[in-house]
Specification:
By secondary structure, this protein is mainly alpha-helical. Helices cover 78% and strands 0% of the residues. The chain is elongated and about 130 Å long. The protein starts with 5 loop residues before the first helix and ends in a 15-residue tail after the last helix.
Length: 144
Amino acid sequence: MFGLGMSEMVLIGIVALIVIGPKDLPGMFRTLGQFTGKARGMAREFSRAMEAAADEAGVKDMTNTLKSAANPQKFGVDKLKEATGMTKGPATQGLSEEREAAKKKMSEGMAKAATDRKAREAAVETAASAPPEAAPETPPKGDA
């Protein structure tokens, strides 16, 4: 409030207590509060009157026009972006379809490779867990 700190307000209160006296101090604060309330009411009324006058003069319409001019969608920047290729135009859409087809082809190839790899691993695991076949006996060396 008015750039006053707490210590400064206490000092003003003490001086007011000494100068005005404890008997008249509550009446003075009441009067000061009423004056402050009236001043705020007048300021609020003035602000409303200025806003109403601005509405009548078309300031809000001008504000909306400026905001729409600052909005890239309404200002035509979207067409500029499309012309420079920054958005999806017909050529970009065709390129996207080609990329989607390539992605699908790669995904199918990777899925097939993964299936084949799992089948190979299963075959190796099956072969490793099967009992070993009987090997032909060879005579021990040295006894013949």
